[in-house]
Structures are given as structure tokens and as C-alpha cells.
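Lecture notes, part 5. Sequence design as translation. It can be helpful to think of inverse folding as translation between two languages: the language of shapes and the language of residues. The source text, in C-alpha cells, appears below.
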């Protein structure tokens, strides 16, 4: 038997394939919308990725043409901000008739504001000179290394100056904890 010409064999194979595809068509139609959507999303993601890659390349090229700012004008950092501390309560000491009669030494009124500030700075405990600028979290981190005497000195300083309730409470609790541990 002589084989049939190539064109006839290809046509027969094409007809058989078309018939098979026609039988599968109802099943494929049900999944067609999902397939179209997923392929569209894949194409969209590929385009976004290519655009991003081009933008990164463009940034690299342009960064060589113009120097970048050291620090943008809109950027602020914690170190740049000045800490806001509430003003201290200063009550001037004026002699009254009752106290003038007693033999007590009173601190005179400060005429010079710099004198008052120097006195306040001198009162800061030597082992923690930056105490007045610390936040409560910064102070909490430093309290672990202090003994009872130092903690009590900080508490006296806090009560004499700002008397911030959260600081006083934390110092009292820490003193109690250290005393209980020893």
C-alpha cells in the first residue's frame, strides 16, 4: 500500500484535531473568563515591573548628573528637635514679719536671671548631669545602674525643681524595688 500524499494526511489530522477541540469546547468555555482575567493580570504585572525597572535605571543615570541633597528640607530628626521642658515654678522669697523675727537664713530674690539658672544647674546631681533634659523612657533606661543613694538624690532634685508626677512615681517605685532586692 502506497502512503497517501502529505497534504491529505495533514488535512485528516487537522480535521481530527478540530473535532477533538469541538468536543472540549463546552468545558473550556466555562473556564475562559477566568483564564482571560488571569492572563490580563499577568500582563499588567509584567508591564508594571518593566516600568519600575526603567524608572530605577533612569534614577541611576540622573543621579550622576545632579548631586543629591545631603538632608532634605522636609526631613526632621529627633536630634534636631529641641526638647520642650515646662518652665520651672519659681517662688520668690520675701521676708515677712514672722520669719524676720526668727533666726532662719533665707535665699534672697534673684535679680539676675542668669544667677537663678546657674543655681538650678548646680543642683543637678553630678552622676547624671543631663537629668533635666531626659525623657521618661531615657531615664528609665538609666535607672537600672543606680544605687539607692543616687536614686534618692534624683528624687530630691525632681521634687525640688519640676516635680513631674510620672518622674516622681517612677523614681519612688525604683527605690522600692532596689531596696527590696537588697
Amino acid at each position: 500500500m502506497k502512503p497517501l500524499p502529505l497534504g491529505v494526511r495533514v488535512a485528516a489530522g487537522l480535521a481530527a484535531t478540530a473535532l477533538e477541540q469541538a468536543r472540549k469546547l463546552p468545558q473550556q468555555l466555562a473556564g475562559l473568563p477566568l483564564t482571560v482575567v488571569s492572563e490580563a493580570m499577568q500582563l499588567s504585572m509584567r508591564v508594571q515591573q518593566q516600568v519600575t525597572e526603567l524608572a530605577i535605571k533612569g534614577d541611576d543615570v540622573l543621579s550622576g548628573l545632579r548631586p543629591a541633597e545631603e538632608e532634605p528640607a522636609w526631613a526632621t530628626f529627633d536630634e534636631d528637635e529641641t526638647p520642650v521642658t515646662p518652665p520651672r515654678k519659681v517662688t520668690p522669697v520675701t521676708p515677712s514679719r514672722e520669719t524676720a523675727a526668727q533666726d532662719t537664713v533665707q535665699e534672697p530674690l534673684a535679680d539676675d536671671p542668669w544667677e537663678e539658672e546657674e543655681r538650678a544647674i548646680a543642683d543637678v546631681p553630678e552622676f547624671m548631669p543631663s537629668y533635666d533634659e531626659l525623657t521618661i523612657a531615657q531615664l528609665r533606661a538609666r535607672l537600672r545602674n543606680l544605687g539607692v543613694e543616687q536614686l534618692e538624690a534624683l528624687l530630691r532634685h525632681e521634687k525640688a525643681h519640676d516635680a513631674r508626677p510620672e518622674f516622681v512615681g517612677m523614681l519612688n517605685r525604683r527605690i522600692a524595688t532596689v531596696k527590696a532586692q537588697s
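The translated text above is only one of many valid answers, since several sequences can fold into similar shapes. Helices lie at 6-65, 97-101, 113-122, 136-143, 148-160, 165-181.
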